[in-house]
Design a protein that fits this description.
Aspartate Aminotransferase, domain 1; Aspartate Aminotransferase, domain 2; seven-stranded mixed beta sheet; 36% helix; globular
């Protein structure tokens, strides 16, 4: 957007010229609790007055330990866990790869087409979209292999919808036979719902079947919950919808309440495989960020924000699906919880992506008071990432602007 942010409160951003915007981007899914939540701000202020930084590898701040314990308590998995705190989602993905490689003694990592895992060398290599993330930044990291993710709206011609999830898991088995043996695979990395890929919700059988495959071959399963975690899908973590227990969970974005913070949380036997000094960093587990995260978790649970997100998401989905009768360029409306999107096409029969129209819709919204993002392999998905604390009135006003944009662009 060609403006500059000055302040934010709840679901509203204000630019340096005093113009206010309803925020349906939340800093790319970072402000799930909204801007300036008083409990988070209070925690940041109090911690900053006590200790800003000591360096976890030097003298670990007690806030690091409290947050690590809390994360082990709330993440899925009825087994002993440990947590590592870092600065960003990409850094957490990199360290999850280090953990499973060290623990298994194997080199290979499997990820999925249309995925996004970050912009560092390894996380970029794991990402399943070339433009704009990979560009000419290679050579890429070795021993990374990719298979299809079950994308219902663009499933292969002639394939029944009920076969899609199983077919994608079968593609992993085929990879074991054709490209890399299962005994060389250190881990499989998956988004429970694809974020930058366009809010692609997999069929319900996909993640359980993938979990079973990983158990069968003794391959750690890594769930990338960077965008889906912390209440966005209507549960604290998206994997809860499928009932699976990943071996490692990667977190970031809304965890820090706006401050840089990420985590890898997983089985103790995996996390303990690395010798002291092998994992960590100068700023990882900064006490101010940890204090913010502890407040975020309390707010999420005390104010029942995942459940509130479900209600807001259902309200948004209902309205957006109602637009489909009037706007033929809406190919599909989809989502889970407050992770809601619509895919724009030039023709519903061919499902040809309408990337240019998507950009025009965004421009209209940006100039009429709504912060909004696109996503998707074809850059034709408009995604909604409103704060879980937004009021119904704020949600409706943002949707009004989006509806106006569709009408203006289609006219």
């Amino acid at each position: 957007m060609p403006v500059f942010a000055a302040s934010g409160t709840g679901a509203t951003l204000t630019d340096v010229d005093g113009q206010s915007y309803i925020d349906f981007a939340t800093g790319i899914s970072v402000m799930n609790v909204g801007h300036g939540h008083p409990r988070v701000v209070k925690a940041i202020r109090e911690q900053a007055e006590r200790l800003v930084h000591s360096g976890a590898p030097v003298m670990m701040p007690e806030a690091y330990v409290r947050l690590a314990r809390r994360l082990c308590e709330i993440t899925p998995g009825a087994f002993p866990k440990k947590a590592l705190l870092l600065n960003s989602g990409a850094e957490a993905v990199e360290n999850a790869v280090k953990v499973v490689r060290q623990a298994t003694g194997r080199p290979a990592i499997i990820s999925f087409h249309n995925s996004f895992h970050g912009r560092t060398l390894m996380s970029m290599t794991l990402t399943g979209k070339v433009s704009p993330y990979r560009q000419n930044f290679g050579p890429y990291a070795p021993e990374v292999y990719q298979v299809p993710y079950p994308y219902e709206y663009h499933r292969p011609a002639g394939m029944a919808a009920e076969s899609l999830g199983g077919a994608c898991v079968e593609a992993v088995r085929q990879l074991f036979k054709t490209t890399v043996g299962a005994d060389r695979v250190a881990g499989i990395l998956v988004e429970p719902v694809q974020g930058e890929g366009g809010f692609v919700v997999p069929p319900p059988d996909f993640l359980p079947a993938l979990r079973n495959l990983c158990t069968e071959y003794q391959i750690p399963l890594i769930a990338d919950e960077v965008q889906t975690g912390l209440g966005r899908t209507g549960t604290m973590f998206a994997v809860e919808h499928s009932g699976i227990e990943p071996d490692l969970v990667v977190l970031a974005k809304s965890l820090g309440g706006g401050l840089p913070l990420a985590a890898v949380v997983g089985r103790s036997e995996l996390m303990d495989a690395t010798n002291p000094g092998g994992l960590g960093g100068t700023f990882g587990g900064n006490p101010v960020a940890c204090a913010a995260a502890l407040a975020v978790i309390d707010v999420m649970l005390d104010e029942k924000l995942p459940q509130r997100g479900t209600k807001l998401g259902a309200r948004a989905l209902g309205r957006m699906r109602g637009w489909m009768d009037r706007h033929s360029h809406i190919g599909e409306v989809r989502g889970v919880g407050a992770m809601v999107a619509m895919e724009l096409v030039t023709d519903r029969a061919t499902r040809e992506p309408a990337a240019t129209m998507t950009n025009e819709v965004l421009r209209y919204c940006h100039t009429h008071g709504l912060v909004l993002l696109k996503a998707g392999l074809y850059d034709n998905v408009i995604r909604l990432l409103f704060p879980l604390t937004a009021s119904e009135q704020e949600l409706d006003r943002g949707l009004d602007i989006l509806e106006e944009a569709l009408g203006s662009v289609a006219a």
